[in-house]
Design a protein that fits this description.
The chain is mainly β. The chain has one helix and five strands. Helix content is 9%, strand content 40%. The longest helix has 9 residues. The protein is flat. It starts with a strand and ends with a helix. This is C2H2-type domain-containing protein.
Length: 99
Amino acid sequence: MQDAWSSREAWVYECLCCETTWDEVLEVRHFGDGHGNEAVIYERNGQPCTTPWTDCLCPKCQSRNVKAWAASRKANELPPARDGNDVAMVFHLRRIHAW
């Protein structure tokens, strides 16, 4: 038996060439096979499309140099900075040679 459900996702796009921004709402269809596997199909205007973060084209300058993110996250929003007292994180970063 297959499980199926739908949701709507809003995505924001920004062209890195001409700085145009726009947003789109996509219908997302999820299909589960009952064994823990899931398939996801994105639809734009009722037609299947690629995932929102691939194959984007700027409507103004036709550039493919486009950045996409889910609308729940703002463009310049950064995660909160750590205060530097997290010793475990410091040792982890040193261990992977990232500090």
